[in-house]
Amino acid sequence: MREANAVGSRGKAAERDTLECWGGVDLGGTKIEAVVVDRAGTVLGKMRQPTPADGEPGDVVRAIHDALEGAAHAAGLTSRQLLGVGVGAPGAVNANEGTLGHVSNVGRGWSTPYPVAGDLGARVGRPVVLGNDVQVAVAAEYRLGAGRAFRSLLGVWWGTGVGGGLVLDGVPWRGRGAAGEVGHMVVKPGGARCGCGRRGCLEAYAGRASMERRAHKAVRQGETTILFDLMRKKGRTRLTSSIWARALAQEDALATWLFGRAVRMLGAGLASAINLLDVEAVVLGGGLGTRLGPEFAGRIHEAMRPHIFVPERQPPVRVAELGELSGAIGAALLAQPPMK
């Protein structure tokens, strides 16, 4: 069954025609979030729908287009009235070529670069730009949300995987294209297998997909949990953040243990990043980070403390203020030309 949520102001098409509007899409492992924003980043319309669980790259692009059309319609527009579209995506983004490759958590996953910008651009008839999903979300939080008060920050997007993004002295830092990948910092040499194929990555312990695989393994070994009962009752095929939240609220032993381990590993990994970069703040976002952040930001902060080299200057952990829309808003901002 397809689920979608479209919100916006219909019946104002004439008003919208006078506005400069851009579309933004946050492509995630479980959901696609699309927004339409104005120059100031104000959301005029939005839509969410599930990511095709078994989709090929072309199927995923079609779903992105559907979500974008829904957001535009909610804003009283069509996608062809947008001035441009940005897409924030996980994996290896080649912004110059408009391709996306090495994607492990979306659809069936794909390694060969796929021309997402060209495919989507042909559907909407507008220019499309690609960016790393977490980097664009962090840029949005830096400009409009929880990072406004800081000149340097580390964004940690805790969801299907664990992504990261950096702003250093007011400048987004992308390195050679893969800076900020805190999820693939090794927190346990030779440890659990990560979705990237390596062992011991932070994501192998804290990513939602990795925790779900570990939960399945525990059930096969005879452990009991309400996680999969909740999943079936909600008609889901994956353990979403809301299911984890409900299991934690009911003190499910397996969910509690998995999240306790995730917090310990997050503490060690993020503290190591702070020791290297000495940024002013950590912003916690993503599906799990947004839903569980108010409770878990403090726990992660405490788990970092034993590993911080300068404990009296430990940076705060702030929850993303733009919530689950930060990635889509950041993607839309990416599509905007610089202010003159």
TrEMBL record:
Please name the InterPro entries in this protein's record.
ATPase_NBD, ROK
- Gene name, please? glkA
Keywords in UniProt for this one? Answer: Transferase
What's an example of a GO molecular-function annotation for this chain?
Answer: glucokinase activity
Q: Tell me the Pfam families matching this sequence.
A: ROK (PF00480)
As for family, the record states: Belongs to the ROK (NagC/XylR) family.
Q: What is its EC number?
A: 2.7.1.2
Which EC class heads this enzyme's classification?
Answer: transferase
- Name of the protein in its database record: Glucokinase
